[in-house]
Amino acid sequence: MQITKPAWLKVRYTVNENYQALQKIVHRGGLHTVCESARCPNQSECWGRRTATLMILGDVCSRACRFCAVEAGKPLPPDPEEPVKVARAVREMGLRYAVITSVTRDDLPDGGARHWVDTINAIRRDNAACTIEVLVPDFQGDPAAVKLIIEAAPDVFGHNLETVPELYARVRPRADYQRSLAVLSLAKRAGLITKSGVMVGLGETPNQIENLMRDLCRIGCDILTIGQYLQPTVTNLPVQKYITPEEFAALRQRGLELGIREVVAGPLVRSSYHAEELGKLISSTTTGASD
Asked: Does the global pTM surpass 0.70?
């Protein structure tokens, strides 16, 4: 049985000049965004502020996670010109803080890691002052692939746990919770600022969420985002519960109490939502601590 979407999740979709300008840049370059592919509810707001999360390695994922609207199937070979196109789009958008993500490419020997490195390097060549946040897949737990990304030195290294381990078999059947923790841990041990995101409303319990936050604390994860799962299509998993804004506030407070440096929690929060403010906040406190 479907449950009624509450008022706090109803978003007004507007299109302004910034939105239209960004749309032209993305589509002219033949690029993809997670905003469009994952049907993000914040697309109107973010594009209206002329920010978007660019998605590399195509728009077809080699996995079929049951929460995700990104098309699953057999991906095309990576576009060797894509890193340059992404760097050009970042410059044309005037981004000072770029968030890059990708589909999962289990079909590639390195999971697309070298393409990731080429993209990071291209952005740096074209946009020397731009801060780079990456949201990477798990590369099937291959440490060599993860280390390639680490050595490219993104300013923020993100990898989402997405949900509690008890729900992986139903929500992310081809992913592994401990493997994802290991990816984040590897980046943190290398000295990078690390970030993860989870969805709630899939049937998890408060105790399971707390245990997840404890796991992130144990590996030193700096930033956690928590948002409401919204069923993107009729073929995706249904929502089990809508979490209230008050419950999100309590989750944020508990995460901070446990020791996560910054927790952003709310019904419409997504991994890259207001990423620039978060990344700069953590970066400034890290710099301050080392001076």
From this structure: yes
| Residues 6+ positions from 117 with CB-CB distance below 8 Å | 148, 149, 151, 152
CB neighbour burial string for 73-112, b if at least 16 within 10 angstroms, e if fewer: eebeebeeebbbbbbbbbeebebebbbbbbbbbbebebbb
**How many distinct structural domains can be found in the chain?**
1
Distance CA 52, CA 36 (A): 10
End-to-end CA distance of the chain: 56
Boundaries of domain holding 260: 11-290
- Asked, for residue 228, whether it belongs to a domain, the answer is yes
Query: What digits encode the pLDDT tens for the residues 56-105?
Result: 999 999 999 999 888 899 999 999 999 999 999 999 888 888 899 999 99
**What pLDDT is stored for residue 126 in this prediction?**
93
Q: 3-state class of 169 per DSSP? A: helix
The CATH number given to whatever domain includes residue 107 is 3.20.20.70
In a domain, 6, yes or no: no
